[in-house]
Amino acid sequence: MTDSVTSETEVLIVGSGPTGLTTAIELRRHGVDCRLIEKEDSSVETSRALAIQPRTLQAFEDMGVLDEVLEEGVRVTDATAYDDDESLFHLDMDNVRPPSPYPFIWFLPQNHTEQILGHRLNELGGEIEFDRELVGFGQWDDRVAATVRHREDGKEQTEEITANWLIGSDGAHSHVRETLGLELEGVTTEQEVLVADAKADWKLPNTEASIWFHEEGVVAVLPMPGEDLWRLFIDVTPIPQAERPDATIDVLQRLLRERTIHRNVTLQDAPWTSNFVANQRMVSRYRSGRVFLAGDSAHIHNPLGGLGMNLGIQDAYNLGWKLALVCGGDASDALLDTYEEERKPIAKTVLDKTGASGSVLVTANPLVKTIRNTALPRVLRSSRIQARILRAMTQLDDTYRGSSLAAVHVDSPLAGLLNSTVEREVRDLLEDSWRAPKAGERVLDGSCRYLNGTETSLYDEIHEQTGFVLLLFAGDGTAEVDSMVHLAEELTDFGGLELHQYVVISDDERDVSESPVVSVLVDEDGQLHSQYDAHVPTLYLVRPDDYVGFRSQPPHAASLTAYLSNRLHVGDDDREVDLR
Ligand SMILES: Cc1cc2nc3c(=O)[nH]c(=O)nc-3n(C[C@H](O)[C@H](O)[C@H](O)COP(=O)(O)OP(=O)(O)OC[C@H]3O[C@@H](n4cnc5c(N)ncnc54)[C@H](O)[C@@H]3O)c2cc1C
């Protein structure tokens, strides 16, 4: 017999992979009641995703898990491609410009990452509710009602959970997606790769990825935490489909001996093996009413570049604060449409790029193979091209510049002299030539200090807050310091938004008084003012996920208020102010 209970929560998250865990952490950090259900009765123990990209490390810092993540794992800074014993090209993370605060890719098995995220969730008062499977749901204007099945004392129980919002972070075979009638649209490719974690007795550098471009298929070997443990990717696409082998230890060892310089390598153990057939697919919509898709439920692609888990974590990092504002009644539901607006183009780009690199690297086509083995290494020797590839690979290039949440106010020197269309074009050109973080780009770090001399950094300050941060740069010299402090004090009505204000000054020779609502940061060597192109007074509004939402030079209070209401959908000021 099946017993049934009922319950309520603000947000129901389905699936406790990295995407669901991040969503739960972000909601709890922003004070939202949520539940995280998982159909399995314990966490998955296999390694799967290994690469944590710099962009995700930045999010982890904000989420409070970075130190734990960096305690275990392997720091990978380089990759070398070989043809037998000849080095074809070398990729070096030092070529990334501007440099990232994390100039490396961190290799940590996904089960460890999930464990760390799980601990953080526990610290925040949440937990994974195992053995709870979503079996159906319906949605109305004001709620979602979900049916969840679980076993208790050997008896099957059904729980009817009423929630305001439901997140489908339930992976590639998402039941949530299926119930919404959405499909992962795209292709299942011909590409097949043997994947394994294996112990090998070779002496390869453990800070770099080693790749062999062999006639019969590419081999990639990545270092893993654990003695002599390596992640192997062996392309079997050129082998006729019916003859492709399973990833057994004997097959892996034979292919490594045939395709790399390590003719006598011995694999002692392979704790995890898999045959991976690549799909390049994504959904057409991330939102349907009160239900959202995030992570693998919304997009899947080949494991080249190690981006799938990273994409899902960043989906959740984007959605979390927006949902929190809406749940708290501080923003209208329209803000939630910007989740798809911002995240879908990023997934599309990843699918396009991994699809293109997949068809070059993992191929049975003899012509493509020749180009791959001859022209590609030559192109990749250019450090400029390397820098571009590495920035894209490590997700440092991902921005929300085209988003409706990215806006600027710039006083044009030509105001009133030109008609409004031409003047707008002039302002667009000015924005494009802007060197500092543009609206929609991630903020940059830099050191500074408090008036009392205590050292700090912009990231430390920004990550201290869970809400928005307003940076008011006073510009070079001291002339505008008082007016910036006064402006900050006057800017008090943010329609209920949690917002912390900083006035950043480059010179504290004159007395500057701090007020209870404004912190003053001293940028002694002017580095922050330069990085932010703030030699004259400039305002930056930083979103909770560390992206610039709004920039105004000079600071323009009415435009900020208009941005909050018209773009962020916070408050009820809908005055017409020209934002770009
Ligand atoms: C070989 C391999 C290597 C990879 N390497 C990398 C890499 O280096 N870097 C990278 O970023 N990515 C990598 N990936 C991809 C990465 O593993 C996935 O993108 C990631 O797991 C997606 O996370 P998710 O939380 O969205 O989904 P999942 O991890 O699939 O989690 C979904 C969860 O939902 C649960 N669930 C499903 N249905 C229900 C239901 N009805 N009710 C309740 N719970 C449910 C599932 O049990 C599961 O726990 C790799 C993948 C593979 C296979």
From TrEMBL:
Location of the FAD-binding domain: 8-353
Organism in which the protein naturally occurs: Halogranum amylolyticum
Stated family: Belongs to the PheA/TfdB FAD monooxygenase family.
Molecular function GO terms recorded: FAD binding; oxidoreductase activity, acting on paired donors, with incorporation or reduction of molecular oxygen, NAD(P)H as one donor, and incorporation of one atom of oxygen
Pfam families: FAD_binding_3
Assigned keywords, A-Z: FAD, Flavoprotein
Cofactor(s) listed: FAD
Descriptive protein name: 2-polyprenyl-6-methoxyphenol hydroxylase
Matching InterPro entries: FAD-bd, FAD/NAD-bd_sf, RIFMO-like, Thioredoxin-like_sf
